[in-house]
Design a protein that fits this description.
The protein is built from 13 helices and ten strands. It is globular.
Length: about 325
């Protein structure tokens, strides 16, 4: 078993953070699964074509998508909600070649598919790896970053509310096999690896928008767990026809998306529409009594009422 062990003050200092690098890796894993599944979409086919022309990138992607131990330069723990991708890449590029080769060798040892590492027999390994992730970020993640960030922020607000009401023991609900195994330890995996120790810096929880995948990121005095956020990129849309036609597709989509509370700007990013369009639909839905607005600090969050839940149940049933 692999247990994440907490020191005396660890929970008090634990927090959430965002990581563009983790989101980029999540996107990479999703595209790789499409390729392995034999039904790749346009982005997965674009990635495959790029990898065919880049042996280093192909070797790195092959390894990190088929191992239980990620190289250190892939799993960098963020520290805040404002983590910048450029800063993460700078940390990655600073890793010296001996350390990069050692962590690649360890990753290969835990891979479930045999893979050579001849592609890593070069100078500037971490810099080359940073260039790979920079390409994936700019091609596949950055254009959709606003929507991805909105999904992750909603997940964090949901879990922060659970922590405020019920404490940290319920914050892990819905995170797959992650659970409390002891009063001061979380079971991360049934496989035996070195147990990470979380000290006074606390544990950092980092959501990503992929459908699956959990991993640990470690650096001196900092440990993070990356996990799938609630509400993936393919959020459920209501079925066409019936009540959906009556209230309009735009309002139906907003009502369906408000499974968790969201701000108008988050809804605009999630649905790919203008803030003005969202505001108009929210006003109509609020007048109808199917949503309410609640202020949290400087932000206003909208959420469904009981009649709103009943209405969405009718719509998603295909009425």
């Amino acid at each position: 078993m692999t247990l994440i062990r907490f020191g005396p003050d660890a929970l008090r200092a634990s927090r959430f953070a965002l990581s563009p690098l983790a989101e980029t890796f999540s996107c990479l894993l999703g595209l790789r699964r499409e390729l392995d599944g034999g039904r790749p979409g346009p982005q997965a086919r674009e990635l495959a074509g790029w990898l065919d022309d880049n042996p280093f990138a192909a070797g790195l992607v092959r390894l990190v998508s088929a191992t239980k131990y990620l190289p250190d330069f892939v799993a960098l723990p963020p520290s805040s909600m404002t983590t910048r991708f450029t800063d993460e890449l700078a940390q990655l590029r600073a890793i010296p070649d001996p350390q990069a080769r050692a962590t690649i060798a360890e990753s290969r040892r835990h891979a479930w598919i045999a893979a050579d590492t001849d592609w890593a027999d070069r100078d500037g390994i971490a810099t080359a790896a940073a260039d790979v992730f920079a390409h994936i970020w700019h091609q596949f993640v950055a254009p959709d970053w606003a929507r991805r960030r909105a999904i992750m922020e909603r997940d964090i607000r949901h879990r922060a509310g659970i922590i405020a009401t019920h404490g940290w023991r319920h914050a892990l609900d819905g995170l797959g096999k992650l659970r409390w195994a002891e009063p001061d330890a979380i079971l991360f995996s049934t496989r035996g690896h070195t147990d990470p120790a979380v000290g006074a810096e606390g544990l950092v929880l980092v959501p990503h928008t992929g459908t699956a995948g959990r991993w640990i990121c470690q650096a001196p005095n900092r440990t993070a767990v990356v996990y799938p956020a609630r509400g993936i990129l393919g959020d459920l849309d209501p079925h066409p026809g019936g009540i959906t036609t009556l209230i309009g597709d735009g309002r139906a989509r907003i009502l369906a998306t408000l499974r968790d509370p969201a701000t108008p700007s988050q809804l605009a990013a999630l649905l790919g529409v203008s803030l003005g369009t969202v505001s108009g639909h929210l006003a109509a839905l609020r007048t109808a009594g199917v949503i309410v607005a609640r202020r949290s600090g400087r932000a206003v969050y909208y959420e469904r009422t009981t009649p709103g839940d009943q209405l969405i149940a009718l719509m998603t049933a295909g009425d």
